[in-house]
Fold this sequence. Notes:
Layout: H1 2-14, E1 22-25, E2 32-37, E3 40-45, E4 51-52, E5 62-63
Antiparallel strand pairs: 1-2, 2-3, 4-5
Amino acid sequence: LIIFAACAFVSAQDFNCPDKSGFYADPYQCDLYYRCSKGQAEQKLCPDGLVFADENPHKELCDIPSNVDCGDRKELQE
Length: 78
């Protein structure tokens, strides 16, 4: 659990927020996303069984996989 938390912290630190605040998808993991505010990223994770819908950066929305096109974001939490 400690290793996971450390990896999560590093991942959020490596994510570069766009200029505008909002919610942005992780480039690799479909159920992982970031809340960006004033250039700072906060890592967020959808509940089990849901993935992040990234069509609108102003909405924090997790949905069932059949409603979301994850594209190249193939990884999911274990």
